[in-house]
Known about the structure:
Blueprint: H1 2-5, E1 10-19, E2 22-32, E3 37-41, H2 48-56, E4 63-68, E5 71-72, H3 78-82, E6 85-88, H4 100-105, H5 120-132, H6 148-161, E7 166-170, H7 178-195, E8 198-203, H8 206-212, E9 215-220, E10 223-228
Parallel strand pairs: 3-8, 3-9, 6-7, 7-8
Antiparallel strand pairs: 1-2, 1-4, 4-5, 9-10
Helix pairs in contact: 5-6, 6-7
Amino acid sequence: MAEEKSMTYISAEDVSVGYHDLPLIEKIHFHVDRGEILTLIGPNGAGKSAILKSIIGQLKLIKGAVWLDGTTMGAMKERDIAVRMSVMMTGRVKTERMTCEEVVSMGRYPYTGKMGILTEKDWQVVHDSLKLVRGLDLAGKDFEAVSDGQRQRILLARAICQEPEIIVLDEPTSFLDIRHKLELLTILKQMVLDHQLTVIMSLHELDLAQKISDCVICVHGDHIEKYGAPEEI
């Protein structure tokens, strides 16, 4: 069975998601290869976040399985998932007067010991991640004091700092003006091309989803209305 799944990096088979064992969306199927972006689109409350939370394990699957590189995620250890997958969900991050550089360094925790002490190599990864999102000038600034656009770039740098093979993002362009939306998605697309990352994310903006995505899922009501290439949808 695992050999069959190894052709795609992450996939879902007959998945049902919801809360308190009550299905919200059923019969979810998808498969994403390395170097591809899958985008979930749909109105507020459609269940996009529930799908993403179920993929990353925040919500228990009601039915079905999610496979990551040939193994069901339910059978994987938390640390093994953490070194492959990073997550950028909506909601404020509790930083307690941390600098932007310190927030980015949180992405190294899957690799540090129990003391959470970063090595010289870890700090180099932090530096490189900040450079990728054009955020080196923000390194020493208080995370709470920077703009929404800058904050989103720093959170993306934290996700990159984890050196993942897949990044899951929930509405990464929320609260951003169009310039910062384009900037963030351009950085993300370039990373996918340069490092063969796999990306699964949700977006509100249909035009941006069309430009950046390899595949699109339309979430509507209690089911997936359409799934395929952007030009088909």
